Amino acid sequence: MHGGWGGGWEWTAVARALRKRGHEVYTPTLTGMGERAHLGRPEVGLATHVEDVVAVLELEDLHDVILCAHSYGGMPATGAADRVSARIRLLVYVDALVPSDGQSAFDLLPDEFVDLARAAADEHGDGWRVTIPAALLPPEGLIAEDERARYVSRLGDQPLASFSEPINLSGTLDRLPHAFVRCTGASLGHDLGGDPIAPMAARAQREGWLYRELVAPHDPQLSDPLGTAAVLAELAAA
Q: Average of pLDDT values for 131-146?
């Protein structure tokens, strides 16, 4: 699952590389984001995004799935894996949020980000659209500037409730194998009160998950799609 403010389009290059390796790949977009931005409304929250993921798994009748989640995508992917754990072979977090039962994304993110997100929603006048903070945009020099500009131009607002709504977990996903891919190419969130992914990576190591490091910034699908595909393929084989 894609991360905040993005869409399935972010992962086209990674998906293409994985298909060349013989994998069947789906890159769904969450409600209210990407090409589904027109479906955004105040009540779209984490539960909606969990339903999005579950619907793809069930309607495509997918089994033995490697469910991959990046950044915010760790929230709905966790909820979906809990709901349909029998369909999942491995749950992979790529520099992603890893919630426990009852936690929201806001619970896992720095207070500075929470304040900024709520202020951004207020600035829109409707109280529910959150624009990506400038500190989270891909930095200049990461890739060719025209490519970076094209990427940034496609990022959109995200429903506030997707950050504030807590997750409800039954505990079934605790029996699933987990993996974590830590992006080590650059620090994240130093202007927003700290890196929220560091505690997630520490939890993965503490709990003995499959653990890999990728020398890329937080958005490896942008800066190193081939390297990202190689790590995911290796984890699928493992």
A: 88
Sign of CA dihedral 44, 46, 52, 156: positive
In this predicted structure, which of 33-37, 163-167, 189-193 has the lowest mean pLDDT? 189-193
Answer yes or no: are the C-beta atoms of 25 and 15 closer than 8 Å: yes
Which residue among 71, 162, 164, 223 is the active-site one?
71
Any catalytic annotation for residue 100?
Answer: no
Residue 184's CB is within 10 A of a number of other CB atoms, namely: 13
What does 132-184 look like in DSSP terms, one character per residue?
Answer: PPGGGSPPTTSS-HHHHHHHHHH---EETHHHHSPP---SGGGGS-EEEEEE-
pTM greater than 0.85 (yes/no): yes
What domains lie within the chain, and their CATH numbers? 8-237 (3.40.50.1820)
Token pair 């789906």 in the structure block, residue: 26
